[in-house]
Amino acid sequence: MGSHALLSEDQERQLSARALRGDERAVNRLVEANLRLVAHVAREYQRQGLAMDDLISEGNMGLVKAATKYDATRGLRFAGYAVVYIRRAIEKALQRESSEKMLESRANGQKRSLDAPLGAKPNISLLSVLADGNSPLADGRAYSTALEEQAERALRSLNERETQVVMAYFGIGQEHLTMAEIAADMGLKRERVRQIRDRAVRRMRKVWRNRS
């Protein structure tokens, strides 16, 4: 990692021009000269869910992406440009890890109660919502473990924000929250939370319908 010398501004300009034309050797040269930057940034994210090796691996992918897009004619040195891509790659990996741990909580002995009633509505749960394509507040019934597993698979199809909204709204692994409470927690408007919830439910229903 420390065996590659830093590049001069002129070298970066030359490599940038070549990299933008698809020259892989130029991309590799930009990457190799900045591996120490990845390690430096990765240290800031230690003890947040990923091992140092994983943080560096994710950061390196961000560095490579930056090297393919860097345009030195805009006046910014490569390190200043690449650090944004490095941080973004690491933070996305941490978010994925957090989601996976949350979604694996049942395997760790923390049942998520996908068939738990929604607040004061005893006949409504996430499973009942997925089973009824006509209403997000449909009547529930008893569900088997196999159906719970299918619901979990549908839940894994969501992105980070959708997962957060659905788990909070349906009280999965936590207390049920109203849309107003979720909006306050996430810094969003209540209507925006409703839109996210509805979009997530539509996506989950699509996965549910296609289950084998």
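(the above was protein one; protein two follows)
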Amino acid sequence: MSAKSQHQNILLAILGTILVVATVAIIGHFTLGKSQETIQGEVEVTEYRVSSKIPGRILEIRVNEGDFVHAGDTLAILEANELDAKKAQAESARNAAAAVNEMADNGAREETIRAAYELLQQARAANDLANETYQRVNNLYEEGVLTAQKRDEALAAVKATDAQVKAAQSQYDMARNGARMEERKATAAQVAQAKGAIQEVNAYIRETVQVAQMDGEVTEIFPRIGELVGSGAPIMNVAIMTDMWGVFNVREDLLNDMKVGDEFMAFAPAFNKDIKMKVYAMKDLGSYSTWKATKTTGQYDLKTFEVKARPVEKLDGLRPGMSLIIKK
């Protein structure tokens, strides 16, 4: 083979290589450059936690995980014997306060009133005698028979018996009228306070029976029968299956058609079908979820947003944890 033929073959090989590279570049530009972005989310559900205000021992668990419960259904029963003792104490305090209040309302006993009346009569008799004695002494003083000292002594006796009559009258009036209005109000308040204590204990006793607050499905049960649970400790979780939504973490450059109120289609692998969803909330996930550019030119950092959307139509069988796929 001549040198000229070899040179032509080399040129043809180079041109072929260039053509292949160019073809691959063009194909890559039109295929890879238009590759779809995949956003994966999952279904979440509203849950409420069942817990008691009081500590106690789990006596019964009336449901199992996976059971559907209705509002008012009994879920668990706790044992708290200390509350029975507290209720007995509160009832005793109420009875004692009621007895004091009744005594204040009824006033003094008949014997006490009679005794106060006799003391008043005695004081009046002594006062009458002192007045009569003073008149006689004063007459004798004016006649010059007795000294002024004797008359003064008789006058002092009159004044002393006057004070005794007033004191006896006050004691009699108090016994007859009973307790003052302020005392009656105070004893009535003590009765109300004792009743309030009983109501508080009864409220705690009701906490020993935990009931469902809303319809839902029992997803988790934490303690076992016989275990102690503290105040506010979770006993079980109940999922409200009628309140489900999808959560997606979306880069901000992909949010062009995912504003609040927008609708989009999400693929549900569990049903092998698309679901129409409507955005109802979105928020910035913070700097920890920022997508960082890998090149120094032509790219920039992008933040990630949490997008929440609800299915437009109810889909039977949709459960929390199922995947949702968005192609953009």
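Reviewer note on protein two: The chain has five helices and twelve strands.
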